[in-house]
């Protein structure tokens, strides 16, 4: 679509200064709206005050999900993934650290990147101190740097305060070499004064910020005892509300609970136990398969106990468990295994983003390895653990997945139609549509949400999708939140369901006829019954199956392209075998077929009917684009080949799009040869490596086909494409 629109706009501006008069915004494709969870999701963050969930991807995108189905997509200038992400709670600011160790400051209201702070070392730990908005960054040399978030300027300010490795780790600092900081977090109840630093080798230091000195050191024996296997810290979290206990997970699958002196304890003492020995080792099955503990989260419950959420996975195994931890005593372990079907990349606890009537409901959000998001009601997990301590049999907590609202089958082909481009938007109708939409993170079974057919007269845009399972869906696209109107499940003649992938769609709004082709070679002609309504989309009203008639025909090879013109009595179909079939609309019988040769194996890539006028002579043509970029021109009524030597590129290259361009008839004639050529109908050929314009007259009349214009690409083009028809009522996707 982008190439076609560029050529159209450029040709319309010839009289006012040529292509140089084209503005950048005229040909600047940009994303207007994105619904759901983007592909390659890899990281989560949550603002509990603004109730905004952030989902970062591996290509630099960050999706924001808020209340009332509010959504936004942040796009970094460089496609660099994030490795840390955290909100400044309640301030509308999101901080992200990318893999190039740049700290990004995002304004979520304006959806823009406000500040990019480069960091010279590799950032290995990152945390935001809420309320004061100081930021601690640990690096690969064992140092901890301090920043201040300037909320007014939306930027970071370097502070002179730094915690050097030599002072925080101690004189036995690994022969003088730095050790990665794996975890840095303010101590509960002493956030502004104490900072816990955990190094990759398991050594942990409690640092007094105001006094700039070490208060407590522990964990040295985990690495220094020669009989123990070497293990590295991979995750950690506080495991009590007063900051006297910390849970640490290791790449060996070990999970230790360590005692830390809280603010009420005497300095430099944690308890009567040996500070270099853990309070407790949790044997939960991770160590057996050496499954690294990727993340840990602790949630308080009744004041005396809490729940520890443990996520571990490796290339060959994964396990997600929840257990009850008692703060005062070491009772038997009560645990449960969440029956997830794949490894979990991250987790967050969110409130107020699910059902509007359940504002206090806490949902456990799990980001799975495939990018899917799985939801658990946290109260059901707590109930299961409590029932496990009694004799009553526990009930496994239910879960649901965040799904796109476009059915269970992937979309393979789509078309966009509009009944009136000049009609003013009905904001009330948009609001009504949005109110019917399910909350994205709802625990309810969302199913398929349908638009009300009683309001079909308000529908301005229609979106038709062909799916991998053979279904065809119709959507109200009056606003970005698409609502399904109805769905056609295609059937064979014996009334059995057809699950062949839909490969091509054509819809003529004036005659209310839909043409579909599938991978099995079946072409269906679906004619909708009209009524007296002025709105052309009123054909979609009525009971499903009763408002249309369907006929079908079986062709040889998968359907690759279809084409029809408004109110025509026939249409064209191309297949992977290189066969063009012209079929009657009324009875779905073949008018004629034409076998076309391809320089390499391949079929028909594009078909288009065209009325060709030259020297007062009119001719109805069928222009055929082959997958090897050859262009053949047939007589529409008979199928006679009009160009014995097809238009061809110098070497075979896969065609993506073939489209005729009609220039404005009001354009003043030019005096040079270039303007004369542009006044003729042009053939736009888009291939993987170039965009070419041919003269339609030369393609029919001569054996040499001059290229009017050609743009070569240094890299391969994207395989998806679209075309915008000059009639102004159809777009391909």
TrEMBL record:
GO terms for biological process: exocytosis; Golgi to plasma membrane transport. Keywords: Exocytosis. One of its GO terms (molecular function) is myosin II binding. GO terms for cellular component: cytoplasm; plasma membrane. Belongs to the WD repeat L(2)GL family. PANTHER family: LETHAL 2 GIANT LARVAE PROTEIN (PTHR10241), TRANSDUCIN_WD40 REPEAT-LIKE SUPERFAMILY PROTEIN (PTHR10241:SF27). This is Lethal giant larvae (Lgl)-like C-terminal domain-containing protein. It comes from Aegilops tauschii subsp. strangulata (Goatgrass). The lineage of its organism: Eukaryota, Viridiplantae, Streptophyta, Embryophyta, Tracheophyta.
């Amino acid at each position: 679509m982008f190439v076609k629109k560029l050529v159209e706009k450029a040709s319309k501006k010839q009289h006012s200064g040529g292509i140089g008069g084209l503005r950048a915004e005229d040909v600047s494709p940009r994303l207007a709206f994105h619904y759901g969870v983007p592909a390659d999701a890899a990281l989560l963050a949550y603002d509990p005050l603004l109730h905004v969930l952030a989902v970062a991807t591996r290509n630099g995108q960050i999706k924001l999900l808020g209340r009332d189905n509010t959504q936004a997509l942040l796009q970094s200038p460089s496609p660099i993934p994030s490795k840390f992400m955290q909100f400044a709670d309640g301030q509308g600011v999101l901080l992200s650290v990318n893999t190039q160790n740049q700290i990004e400051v995002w304004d979520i209201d304006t959806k823009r990147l406000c500040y990019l702070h480069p960091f010279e070392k590799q950032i290995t730990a990152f945390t935001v101190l809420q309320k004061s908005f100081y930021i601690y960054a640990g690096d690969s040399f064992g140092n901890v740097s301090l920043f201040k978030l300037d909320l007014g300027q939306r930027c970071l300010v370097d502070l002179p305060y730094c915690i050097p490795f030599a002072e925080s780790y101690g004189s036995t600092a690994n022969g003088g070499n730095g050790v990665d900081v794996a975890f840095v977090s303010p101590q509960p109840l002493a956030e502004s004064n104490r900072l816990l630093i955990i190094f990759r080798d398991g050594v942990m230091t409690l640092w007094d910020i105001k006094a700039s000195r070490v208060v407590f050191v522990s964990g040295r024996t985990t690495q220094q005892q020669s009989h123990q296997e070497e293990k590295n810290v991979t995750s950690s979290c506080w495991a009590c509300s007063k900051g006297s206990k910390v849970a640490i997970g290791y790449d060996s699958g070990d999970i230790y609970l360590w005692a830390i002196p809280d603010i009420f304890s005497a300095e430099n003492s944690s308890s009567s136990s040996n500070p270099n020995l853990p309070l407790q080792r949790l044997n939960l099955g991770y160590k057996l398969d050496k499954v690294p503990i990727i993340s840990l989260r602790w949630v308080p419950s009744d004041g005396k106990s809490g729940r520890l959420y443990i996520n571990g996975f490796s290339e060959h195994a994964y396990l997600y468990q929840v257990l009850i931890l008692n703060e005062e005593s070491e009772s038997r372990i009560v645990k449960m295994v969440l029956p997830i079907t794949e490894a979990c990349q991250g987790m967050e606890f969110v409130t107020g983003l699910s059902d509007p009537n359940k504002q206090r409901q806490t949902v456990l959000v799990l980001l799975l390895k495939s990018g899917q998001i799985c939801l658990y009601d946290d109260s059901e997990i707590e109930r299961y653990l409590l029932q496990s301590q009694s004799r009553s049999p526990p009930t496994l907590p239910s879960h649901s997945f965040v799904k796109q609202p476009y059915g269970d089958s992937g979309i393979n082909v789509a078309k966009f139609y509009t009944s009136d481009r000049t009609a003013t938007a009905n904001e009330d109708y948009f609001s009504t549509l949005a109110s019917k939409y399910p909350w994205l993170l709802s625990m309810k079974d969302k199913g398929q949400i349908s638009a009300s057919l009683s309001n079909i007269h308000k529908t301005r845009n229609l979106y038709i999708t062909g799916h991998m399972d053979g279904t065809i869906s119709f959507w109200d696209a009056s606003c970005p939140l698409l609502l399904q109107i109805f769905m056609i499940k295609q059937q064979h003649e014996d009334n059995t369901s057809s699950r062949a992938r839909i490969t091509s769609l054509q819809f003529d709004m004036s005659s209310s006829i839909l043409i579909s082709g599938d991978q099995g070679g079946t072409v269906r002609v679906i004619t909708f019954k009209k009524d007296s309504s002025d709105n052309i989309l009123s054909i979609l009203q009525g009971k499903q199956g009763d408002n249309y008639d369907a006929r079908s025909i079986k062709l040889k090879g998968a359907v690759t392209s279809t084409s029809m013109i408004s109110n025509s009595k026939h249409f064209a179909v191309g297949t992977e075998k290189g066969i063009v079939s012209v079929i009657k609309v009324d009875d779905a019988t073949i008018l004629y077929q034409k076998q076309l040769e391809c320089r390499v194996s391949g079929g028909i890539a594009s078909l288009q009917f065209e009325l060709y006028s030259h020297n007062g002579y009119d001719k109805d043509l069928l222009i055929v684009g082959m997958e090897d970029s050859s262009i053949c021109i047939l007589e529409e009524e008979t199928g006679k080949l009009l160009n014995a030597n097809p238009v061809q590129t110098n070497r075979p290259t896969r065609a993506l799009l073939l489209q005729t361009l009609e220039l404005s008839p009001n354009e003043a004639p030019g005096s040079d040869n270039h303007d004369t050529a542009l006044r003729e109908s042009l053939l736009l050929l888009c291939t993987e490596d170039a965009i070419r314009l041919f003269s339609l007259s030369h393609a029919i009349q001569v054996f040499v086909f001059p290229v009017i214009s050609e743009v070569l690409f240094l890299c391969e083009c994207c395989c998806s494409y679209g075309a915008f028809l000059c009639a102004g009522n159809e777009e391909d996707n």
